[in-house]
Amino acid sequence: MPSSNQKYLRYITFSAALGGLLFGYDTAVISGAIGSLTNYFDLTAVETGWAISSALVGCLIGAFFSDSLSSRYGRKPTMLISAVLFTVNSVGTAIPESFSVFVFFRIVGGVGVGLASMVVPMYLAEIAPAKKRGALVANYQLAIVLGIVLVYFVNYFIALQGDTQWNLTTGWRWMFGSELLPSILFLVCLFLIPESPRWLATQGKYQQMQAVLDRINSREEAEAARREIDEHAGTTSNNQWKSLCQPTFRKALFVGVVLSVLQQFCGINAILYYAPEIFKNLGSSANASLLETSVLGVVNLIFTLLAIKWVDKMGRKPLLLIGSVGMTVGLLGVGICVFYTVVSYLILPFLLLFMASFSVSWGPVVWVLLSEIFPSKIRSLALAISVFIQWIANFLVTQFFPVLVANESLDSYFNGAFPFYLFAIICLFSVFFVWKRIPETKNKTLEQMESLWN
Q1: 292: which residues sit within 8 A by CB, 6+ positions away?
Q2: Which of 259, 265, 343, 411 is buried most deeply by CB count within 10 Å?
Q3: Is 89 exposed, middle or buried (0-12, 13-18, 19+ CB in 10 A)?
Q4: Within 10 Å of residue 351's Cβ, how many Cβ atoms?
Q5: pTM of structure
Q6: How many whole angstroms separate alpha carbon 36 and alpha carbon 51?
Q7: How many other CB atoms are found less than 10 A from the CB of residue 451?
Q8: pLDDT tier, 203 (very low <50, low <70, confident <90, very high otherwise)
């Protein structure tokens, strides 16, 4: 592939993946602010869960409308809508004087996340050459991780600018407002990327499709991609709901939905959102807990980079199996440490094992699989359904994790460790699900997915 094509493809990947960075930034920014936010608004345990999970209601709304918007208006306009919503959210969550106003803007930002979480990986999969698709789509997860790591350090830096009282009244506002800069960058970059060639083909815009393919591929690759798209030009169903009733497509949708649920029920977001509070409960100071959480973010980043390197070489299935085993062991260790109330630095290695295992497998690889396993007849609808279910699972974990931790009857038996044991059992189940039900999609074109399920 000519160097100019490679540079353009890298720019497209960078620009679209900024949606993933904002996904990570928006969902993790509250981890550093939740303590001050809880005290500022005098929140109960249920309200604390709602402060975090309210954004997930917006994510559900965004995911629900993502198929209709991306199918009707295109992948690029849908990403532009999400960028505008991110911008509004970053300002709105920084200025509220009432908890209800804060929640409203958290929901607005969540709609942006919900749209981006469906359309960005689909866009990257549709624009990527088959041999590079795994790595390019995995860049979406890398961007999510970068957003999480970035906001961890931003939160830590902001917290150092004042004392406890300053953070209680002002610091948390700067944490939420800091999202404005990446939101504007995402919005600007989107104006310079093309529409998905496969979406252009569904609209009969073949000249524009060919121009995009020529710009991002070598001549041979562009011609091969055009032939495959032409052969399947009529396969996108006008009634995707009816197509989903076919056994082949039901099978693909079932796998996509279960992958989405397991990615959330493994407990990753409970760790990401509540890590500072976990460390504080085990004896760390407020600033030390933010620094320890930042270490988790760095490990997340390193192993996501390894996943990008390995996903097109080792394949999707081996990485998922390795990750499932590592997550199970890590969560069992966390549960034991919490049960015996050990000091925070002893729990850190188990959290790092869990984070490394997730980051090299279930984090990036699930997004790769969701973007590619669905045949063209049902791709946008099936992906939207899977992402919608994923956000429901995310909401349930986020809303009820603090309730499970604070439950007195469970606490008397498990001393706060019950959620981690539960997550470990789910991770163990994921080993068997991947072994039995997940096909290998390495090096296959998007147009070959229907024959894979047959």
Answers
A1: 275, 276, 279, 284, 344, 348
A2: 259
A3: buried
A4: 24
A5: 0.78
A6: 12
A7: 10
A8: confident
